[in-house]
């Protein structure tokens, strides 16, 4: 078996061309690092739920119960992509019916988020936590 130096003698000596190629290839690694770090900013999904428009004529009780609950990690949380049909709950609100007492919420028809979403603002992020950690002196 030949050694490495014998196998690569046809390439020639380490000259200016080889140094140029080495540094150009090394510099191309830097954007890859930025791509790898972008996951810190792009991977998080903030908590969100369907928006109920302010113009909807709903009582406070119906506004608070307008989003169906779903089981997630052993606890009930508001559904992020469904809401009760707005026309139906506005009608129940106008009739003075109470959610859960006069109307069985499990039997109400649901719809998708036709008016968009409401997002919770991140109060703590990886970047914020690390800057607080490193600035504590």
Largest sheet: 2 strands, antiparallel
Gross geometry: rod-shaped
Structural class: alpha+beta
| Biggest sheet, spatial arrangement of strands | 1-6
Query: What is the N-to-C succession of helices and strands?
Result: HHHHEHEEEHEEH
Given as residue ranges, the uncertain stretches (5+ residues, pLDDT < 50) are 130-137
Count of the domains: 2
The residue fraction in helices comes out at 25-40%
Mean pLDDT: 84
User: How much beta, percentage-wise?
Assistant: 5-15%
Describe the protein in words.
By secondary structure, the chain is of the alpha+beta class. It has two domains: 4-42, no CATH class; 48-119, no CATH class. Helix content is 38%, strand content 15%. The protein has seven helices and six strands. The protein has helices spanning 4-7, 16-27, 29-37, 39-42, 60-64, 86-94, 126-134, and strands at residues 48-50, 69-72, 75-78, 82-84, 110-112, 117-119. The strands form three sheets. A two-stranded antiparallel sheet has the order 1-6. It has a two-stranded antiparallel ribbon with strand order 2-3. A hairpin with a 2-residue loop joins strand 2 (69-72) and strand 3 (75-78). The N and C termini lie far apart (59 Å).
Give keywords:
137 residues, alpha+beta, 2 domains, two-stranded antiparallel sheet, rod-shaped, disordered C terminus
């Amino acid at each position: 078996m030949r050694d490495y130096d014998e196998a690569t003698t046809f390439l020639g000596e380490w000259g200016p061309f080889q140094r140029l190629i080495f540094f150009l290839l090394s510099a191309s690694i830097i954007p890859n690092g930025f791509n790898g770090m972008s996951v810190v900013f792009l991977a998080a999904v903030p908590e969100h739920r369907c928006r109920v428009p302010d113009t909807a004529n709903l009582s406070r009780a119906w506004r608070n119960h307008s989003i169906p609950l779903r089981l997630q990690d052993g606890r009930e949380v508001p559904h992020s992509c469904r809401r009760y049909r707005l026309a139906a709950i506005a009608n129940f609100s106008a009739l003075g019916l109470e959610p859960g007492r006069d109307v069985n919420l499990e039997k109400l028809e649901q719809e998708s988020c036709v008016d968009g979403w409401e997002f919770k603002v991140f109060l703590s992020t990886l970047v914020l936590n690390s800057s607080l950690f490193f600035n504590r002196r």
